[in-house]
Design a protein that fits this description.
2 domains, alpha+beta, about 425 residues, six-stranded mixed beta barrel, elongated
Length: about 425
């Protein structure tokens, strides 16, 4: 009657059989699997740190990419195809040794429109600050912007009550105004109540025909404040008596045309002014590029922080493998006595360490990918997934196994076969 053998004794018998000849790599892998099966609980607990570390790397990269995508989408909504020309500095000489700022003019905008193709909307912007009267002797400080009807398009404005002034209002110089939503509520209690009311600016009466708000979040990159009134540009010139403008807005047909168009617009405007005057085309392309780099750098830093978990797990693997070597001293002695070389012993235990870390990294990688995939499949939110994060997680797991498995493997390889056979 055959005596049943336990899994540990069966593994030991295979070890004896394989030690009689030089091992091939497939035998090393098989021995690693046998060792794992013989100590499932201990190895699973050791793998837990690798699972958490690998999953953390993937989730951190996923969160970083999601945050980057959200931020860039919000910034892009401000206007990826917008060119905003700004006056920076420079003066022109005047009478009696005086100088005046060499501001852009309405004619500059017309010159650009004549020479630069694919501009779908444009608007000058003249800015003045006055107190407005709403009747009963009540006045409020306000910022009055003289713009064209196309300003609504180039600045992504949303009309919440009434209407925006049109080309006919501009051509006839009608004294109408559109006010920002917070100002309407502060003056009249609600947006709808503001429409139809009269206000006065420097004694000139304006009728409020609409209330607006910014259609997208501008993160402070806006000339519009909570006390802003928009009036037709020709009407705003009553207050300055000149065709000077503070800024000029252009909207291109395609975002890809923004960079070359901004250079062309700048060249045209500079050619119409003194060579010492400075103007700046503000476009979102450069800003978006900087924000993308910042987001990528933050993701890298957070990923490095998450990789600390893998290093801690590597220490756990090293301790587990050292205990494994101690528990298998007699087995190592028998293998050496039967002809196994130090290199083969080293390779065997190093393979076990790599198998342990890589298995944990694989489970963690699958878990880290499963979470964003589940969110994308089960909800309307689309989470970006980086396959490179999976490659990095698996590669780091293998590297941790090699680094922290080297010490136990070397210790096993250096054991004296005579002393190991005497070990009890």
């Amino acid at each position: 009657m055959a005596i049943p053998t336990s899994p540990k004794s069966a593994s030991f018998e295979r070890t004896l059989a394989s030690a009689r000849s030089t091992m091939v790599f497939s035998e090393v892998v098989r021995l690693a699997v046998d060792s794992f099966r013989a100590n499932k609980v201990r190895f699973l607990l050791t793998m837990l740190g690798m699972i958490i570390g690998a999953a953390s790397i993937i989730l951190v990269v996923t969160i970083g990419k999601t945050g980057k995508q959200y931020a860039l989408n919000e910034l892009t909504s401000i206007g990826p195809n917008k060119v905003e020309m700004q006056y920076v500095g420079g003066t022109t000489p005047g009478p009696n040794n005086t100088t005046t700022p060499d501001l852009m003019t309405y004619e500059d905008m017309n010159a650009v429109l004549d020479q630069v193709p694919d501009i779908v909307a444009s608007s000058p912007m003249l800015e003045v600050h006055y107190s407005v009267g709403i009747g009963g002797g009540v006045t409020k400080d306000a910022m009055l912007l003289g713009v064209s009807p196309q300003y609504k398009t180039v600045r992504n404005l949303a009309v919440v009550a009434g209407r925006f002034f049109d080309d006919q209002d501009t051509a006839s110089r009608t004294k109408v105004a559109v006010i920002v939503e917070p100002f309407a509520k502060a003056l009249f209690g609600s947006t709808s109540a503001a429409v139809g009311h009269n206000i006065t600016v420097e004694g000139i009466p304006f009728i409020i025909i609409g209330v607006f708000k910014e259609g997208v979040t501008t993160f402070g990159l806006s000339e519009i404040s909570d006390q802003t009134l928009l009036v037709p540009y020709p009407v705003a010139r009553y207050f300055t008596g000149s065709d000077k403008v503070k800024e000029i807005f252009f909207t291109m047909r395609d975002p890809a045309e923004v960079v070359p168009a901004s250079r062309q617009i700048l060249a045209i405007i500079k050619s119409r002014h003194r060579s010492s005057s400075v103007y700046l085309p503000f476009i979102m392309t450069g800003f978006l590029s900087i924000m993308a780099k910042i987001a990528d750098m933050l993701t890298v830093v957070l990923s490095l922080a998450a990789s600390i978990t893998l290093i801690v797990s590597g220490v756990g693997i090293m301790n587990s493998m050292l205990a494994n070597v101690q528990a298998r001293i007699k087995e190592i002695g028998i293998r050496k006595a039967l002809g196994a070389t130090s290199l083969e012993i080293r390779l065997q235990f190093l393979t076990e360490a790599v198998f342990l870390s890589l298995a944990g990294g694989l489970v963690g990688t699958l878990l880290g990918l499963a979470i964003p995939l589940s969110v994308s499949l089960l909800t309307p939110y689309k989470i970006p997934i980086s396959l490179w994060s999976a490659v990095i997680a698996l590669g780091t797991s293998m590297l941790v196994g090699i680094l922290f498995g080297t010490l136990p493997a070397n210790r096993a390889a250096r054991l004296d076969p005579v002393q190991t056979l005497k070990y009890e």
